[in-house]
Every structure is written in structure tokens, then in C-alpha cells.
Amino acid sequence: MHFRQLYEPESSTFTYLLACPDTGVTALIDPVLETVERDLEVLQSMGLTLDFAVETHIHADHITGALRLKQATGCRIVGPAMDALPCRDMGVREGEPFEIGRIVLNPLFTPGHTDTHHAYLLDHHGLKLLFSGDALLIESCGRTDFQSGDAHRLYHSIHDQFFRLPDETLVYPAHDYEERRITTIGQEKLRNPRLGKGRTEAEFVQIMHDMDLPYPRKIDFSVPGNEQCGASPDTLPDGMGGQRESSRQG
């Protein structure tokens, strides 16, 4: 398997490149509009063409690069079928494996950050890789205070879907704000201050309620743009160019 973890610094977003070496079929998970040209250069340098742009959910902190990538490469746009977006070419559902050549992603319905959020689990020769989206971050988790978020549902998504995986499962999140790249299920069960060491659902809900986070800076144009698979406004509001505390998902 060809694998790259790519980073967009303004929204602290990770994009993941997966390519099947046997078939050449290639996907990008959670691409970002600002780094489309970078992603195309990476693909070209590896001798790959893009087949799929895959979303974990409708993002609030950045505009997806899916539409721009489709225009440039002819790739198909993929995301949770529950979103029912006309601009997507394929919808994924839990229980229906999604194939990238001979690479098989298993969608996991993990609501709580948003009500249709999906993560993707990959078994690579016995080693499990979890692309957790915004549901589970490194010693953190996604916000639950907007966009149909629900702390109770997120707690159960993480415990029922993620924490039942083997401790050695590698976790690749959609964001990190502390220059970290990867975690494991075992580490999150021990070290995550919101969820680890057996925190109860009531404790987690209280923690999320007490966070009192600022209103996401980009949500008013990112969500409508992402509901169109990456349609970007002609001009962005003043001060939208950089990453600040209030745009953080965690």
C-alpha cells in the first residue's frame, strides 16, 4: 500500500493518500481546497492518478478540495450516504466495504461531532489503521456544540466503535493542533483527558458542556460550500486567512 499523511496548516487538517500498488487505484481522504495543487503534485511525483476524494463528514473549519480535484482529475467524490448530497458520486454506509483497488475501507458510523460522521477502518496485513475524522483526535475529540453535535452520541461512538478495537490500532485523525501525527487506541484509552481511564458518559458530557468554545470562524461559509462538495465563495470574509483558536474542532 502506498500511504502519505499530508498536512494543511491553516486549519490543522490532515489529508491521507492511499493507493493500491497492484491496481494503481488511489484515494485522498479529507482533502482541503488550499492544498489541491500540492496534492496533485504529490500524485504526479508518485506516478498516480486520483480515483476518489473521500470525506468523513461535512467540515465546518475548512472547504474541501473534492470538487476542485474532480474538475482537475475526473475523480469521483465519496462520502456518507446519509448526507444525501447531489454533488457526490458515491455514498458509503457502515457494513458496506469501500474498495480502493485491493485496499478495503470499512466505514464506521460515528455520530456525535456531526450527525452523519463516518470514520474508516483499514486492515493492512493484520495491522488496523483507523482514519477517525473529527470524532477522535489525539488526546482530544471533536466538538459537539454545533452542526447537530451531541456529546452523548459521540461518547458511544468512541466507546462502541473505537475503544473496542485492539489497543495497537493506529489512529490517524483529521486534525491535530500540537504538531502530533498519530496515536493508538491504547494510548487514547489511557491518556485522553476527556475519555480515558474509564471516564463515565456523564463526566464526558459535563466536560464537553463546560468547554464553552468560541463560535467557529469559518462555519458560515464552509458548511454551505461543503454541502456543494467544495464550492468556494469568490471572496472570503476579512481575517479568514489563518488558523486561530476559535476554528479548532477539538
What does this structure look like?
By secondary structure, the protein is of the alpha/beta class. It has helices at residues 36-45, 66-73, 151-162, 185-191, 201-210, 219-226; strands at residues 2-8, 13-19, 26-29, 52-54, 76-80, 90-92, 98-100, 103-109, 118-124, 127-133, 136-137, 140-141, 170-173, 183-184. A 6-stranded mixed β-sheet has the order 1-2-3-4-5-6, with helices on one face. Strands 7-8-9-10-13-14 form a 6-stranded mixed β-sheet. It has a two-stranded antiparallel ribbon with strand order 11-12. Helix 3 (151-162) packs across helix 5 (201-210). The protein is globular, with a radius of gyration of 17 Å. It starts with a strand and ends in a 24-residue tail after the last helix. The relative contact order is 0.16.
Please describe the topology of this protein.
Blueprint: E1 2-8, E2 13-19, E3 26-29, H1 36-45, E4 52-54, H2 66-73, E5 76-80, E6 90-92, E7 98-100, E8 103-109, E9 118-124, E10 127-133, E11 136-137, E12 140-141, H3 151-162, E13 170-173, E14 183-184, H4 185-191, H5 201-210, H6 219-226
Parallel strand pairs: 3-4, 4-5, 5-6, 10-13
Antiparallel strand pairs: 1-2, 2-3, 7-8, 8-9, 9-10, 11-12, 13-14
Helix pairs in contact: 3-5
